[in-house]
Amino acid sequence: MPVAIIDYGAGNLRSVQKAFQQVGIDAEITKDKNTINAAKGVVLPGVGSFDAAINELRQLSLEGVIEAAIGLGKPFLGICLGLQHLFESSEEGKQRGLAILPGKVKKFNFKNTPWSNLSIPHMGWNRLLVKHRSPILEGIEDGTMMYFAHSYFVAPEDEKLVASKTDYGIEFCSSIWKENVFGIQFHPEKSGERGLEILKNFGRLCK
Amino acid sequence: MFEVIPAIDILDGKCVRLKQGQYDAETVYSKNPVDIAKKWEAEGAKRIHVVDLDGARTGLPANIMVIKSIIKEVGIPIEVGGGIRNFTIIADLIKYGADRIILGTTAIKNPNLLSNVCEKFDDKIAVAIDAKGEVAAAEGWMYVSKKNIFTLAKEAIGLGVRRFIYTDISRDGMLEGPNFVGIKNFALQINVPVIASGGISSSEDIEQIKEIGVEGCIVGKALYEGKIKLSDIL
After folding, report:
1. A189: number of CA atoms within 13 Å, CB side?
2. For position B119, which CATH number holds?
3. Going from the N-terminus, what domains does chain A have, and what CATH number goes with each?
4. Structure pTM?
5. How far is CA A46 from the centre of its chain?
6. Contact, A122 vs B3, CB < 8 A?
7. CB-closest option in B162, B191, B212 to A189
8. Is B168 a catalytic residue?
9. For A150-204, what is each residue's pLDDT tens digit?
10. Do B213 and A147 touch (CB under 8 A)?
């Protein structure tokens, strides 16, 4: 199997799988260690709350499997909460993240700012401001609209990890890249053709 | 990340609910839709879905002033649909502060207009897919086009549409529960956000729709009849 989509009760995995299939990439939804170990690339999706999801991941003993996949240099893609889990901690919860990358997850807070009318969660289409073109952003023009649905965003310690930002009151990090580790805050499976292009780019790396 | 969106359907200036879109099966809930909008806002709604039923049927919006009052008097985003079939009305409503404009019949009958307004107003435009089985209805649901909903949606995406509202019109206003299979099939095949509507009758229905992975759902009659309380679910 080229791509394993980790099933940790995060909901909405079928649409991610379906989106991979639409660009001709086989992807399996699984919580089985052997299947994940055998996959050429790993996707950690995620909808829900930081603590509940990370607890589930630990309960299924999948933390080590993810670390091993990343350590072996396999392409790894975290989507939304899956991106947030790559970091050390989150303002959303008390649990420690996977801590694969240094930095934390912050909540939007527009109180006492000129943007106090902006609603949280940030839900809807917004632009990618490309900072470092990561391999999965290949062919994606600066300013392309992607679909977001989140209240928290990642703040990597190392600014060099930031592949793109997006402006919602502040410019937050909307995607990251470090070697074989990719993360995107938006939902590629809901971002139309351009979103599918990103999954296709990722799939191409999973050889 | 899921929005529960109260619906306000306006017929002849009043807030009503229809059954399956039939104009002779109306129940009047209030003579003042603005009060109702304020009530849903006070109960915690993050967005309101307003439909001009006169407009949907005739193609000429008849309740624009009421809709504008709602936009002016509540602080949350308002999405507006029903009989909006020309550029001037769309531009006017957006200028006035409508957060989102919903096009139904126009999407089926006027692809040029659809592509124009998507280019100009981007994701402020949403298309209503009013499904009767897999076929799309139009003109206040009185007319069933021969267009397959998936074909229609994919064409619309090609023209720049970035959001759909999927309604199963056989379920709307019936309080018999939504068509989960229909919603799921649609949301899975369409790679842009989808809002589900039609037949949502209980908090359990909402929980189940959330699992499907749609952006939100529109609730009408169940709210007006007290079967769902916004405060319980938001």
Report:
1. 25
2. 3.20.20.70
3. 3-205 (3.40.50.880)
4. 0.92
5. 8
6. no
7. B191
8. no
9. 999 999 999 999 999 999 999 999 999 999 999 999 999 999 999 999 999 999 9
10. no
